[in-house]
Amino acid sequence: MMREELEVFHRHLQQQKLKRTSQRDLILEVFLDIERHLSVEELYDLVKQKDSSVGFTTVYRTMHLLVEAGLARQVEFNDGRTRYEHEYKHDHHDHLICTECSALIEFYNPEIERLQEEIAKSFGFHVQSHSHRLFGTCNAFFANEGDFPPYCQKAKRQSSNQ
Amino acid sequence: MMREELEVFHRHLQQQKLKRTSQRDLILEVFLDIERHLSVEELYDLVKQKDSSVGFTTVYRTMHLLVEAGLARQVEFNDGRTRYEHEYKHDHHDHLICTECSALIEFYNPEIERLQEEIAKSFGFHVQSHSHRLFGTCNAFFANEGDFPPYCQKAKRQSSNQ
DNA sequence: CTAAATGCAAACCATTTGCAACGGA
DNA sequence: TCCGTTGCAAATGGTTTGCATTTAG
Questions:
Q1: Is A50:A30 a contact under the CB 8 Å cutoff?
Q2: Per-residue pLDDT tens for B51-60?
Q3: What is the pTM of this model?
Q4: CA distance A134 to A160
Q5: Do A105 and B125 touch (CB under 8 A)?
Q6: Most exposed among A7, A26, A28, B32, judged by the fewest C-beta atoms under 10 Å?
Q7: Which of B78, B132, B131, B103 lies closest to A123 in space, CA to CA?
């Protein structure tokens, strides 16, 4: 059976009078298989493993298509490269980003979402999308005890070095 | 009398064993005089008007210094260039950004600020800074009536063309 | 006198674009 | 066939860096 996302993609291509190609299908498939925030370069490397003839540019162009089709969402973590996460039937969420270890935590708070809408409304503003990121350290509270939360990437690196 | 920010800057330079220069002072002065979100290029153009010998690179480097000194804050509006706003003794705020006319509205909501802290705490996370941006259209609700909110840049452009 | 700062040009680097060859519909 | 797509190489554009020269402390 076909992945729902693939159908959504093909429908989008048809509507836009664009063409279905093996490269596009492959890139979408690889993207969907990874539950992680991928940069174009990371995605390109993964795609190359399945078909080394696919070009860098095609991955860039396809990611734009996936965003337009509502299948991918761009996320900026201020490290100079755009990353993509799954969008289709994935609940919206925002991010906590550790400036020390690059750990990424997703959060969702309905009250904040509600307040956002309220604020926008008070300015006669219609929100299309938003980006809410909290930058900080995931281990600051634990530094004294040498105890790290499970998602801390630095702690993982340290323990794997022992 | 000397601007408070200038004192803060000089104290920072001294602490870091860096040097006070006429270029740095000028750039800070020009930056402080403008109550707007400036890109490095815009700031450079303004600085050039007062001293055409100042280099582009120096503006870039000085803005980094101002951020370190707590006098400027970086803001990304996803238009590919970093902008800076005043930080010193300016209340923290977040942004509504119009994707149609680039209008910029600042907002502050204590309840959202509180919830952010709460969320971070629940993850054992210590927030250093955050970026909360609402992207959308400032005129969408008014499109039918042809009535634009006062901050709409597009409306301003249209009326000045008449 | 010494280390830091400046301004220029060149380098960087993620992303985009021009273009000739290719391939869906 | 027609027109969108591909992959490469080259261009783009904001930002950074190398370096010889200048300057603050």
A1: yes
A2: 999 999 999 9
A3: 0.86
A4: 27
A5: yes
A6: A7
A7: B103
